[in-house]
UniProtKB/TrEMBL annotation:
Originating species: Pelomonas caseinilytica
Signal peptide start and end residues: none
Protein's recorded name: GNAT family N-acetyltransferase
Pfam family, one: Acetyltransf_7
Domain of life of the organism encoding this protein: Bacteria
Lineage of producing organism: Bacteria, Pseudomonadati, Pseudomonadota, Betaproteobacteria, Burkholderiales
Annotated N-acetyltransferase domain residues: 3-142
InterPro entries tied to this protein: Acyl_CoA_acyltransferase (IPR016181), GNAT_dom (IPR000182)
């Protein structure tokens, strides 16, 4: 399953919100934190199409990611995959592409999410343990 990237436009917001909710719902419900209004507000606050890419497999949008360029590093804000697309190497493909840039990468993952094991497997280390999220950092050669 090799994805292609497609650009994001403003009109994609609602579809991307639905995908985000689909991807996170199980983890958020398990933590008692599922709230569609909060999901909408969080995505809206970081909705920058120029930083975003759809992941497309066989003509279907199966996920998306958002990477904010910062001074000398990258901030991964979102990496969401539809549940049926998870566990097939798509997330690893995105991370490998980002790591190939050679810049440090930071991100936050929801506490008790399966994403934590994923990021640790890909060389990210914990830099802060917060109430809701765990902050990670990856550096080339670390």
């Amino acid at each position: 399953m090799t994805p292609t990237l497609a650009p994001v436009v403003e009109a994609d917001f609602e579809a991307m919100l639905a995908l985000r909710i689909e991807a996170l719902r199980e983890s958020l419900e398990r933590l008692g934190r599922f709230n569609p209004d909060v999901a909408r507000a969080r995505l809206k606050s970081q909705f920058r199409p120029e930083w975003m890419h759809h992941l497309v497999v066989d003509g279907e949008r199966v996920g998306y990611f958002t990477v904010e360029p910062r001074d000398g590093e990258l901030r991964l804000h979102h990496l969401y995959l539809r549940p049926k697309a998870q566990g097939r190497g798509l997330g690893a493909w995105v991370i490998a592409g980002l790591q190939a840039r050679g810049l440090p990468i930071t991100l936050a993952a929801l506490r008790e999410s399966r994403a934590n094991a994923f990021y640790r497997r890909h060389g990210f280390r914990v830099v802060a343990d917060q109430e809701v999220d765990i902050e990670y950092r990856w550096e080339a050669g670390a």
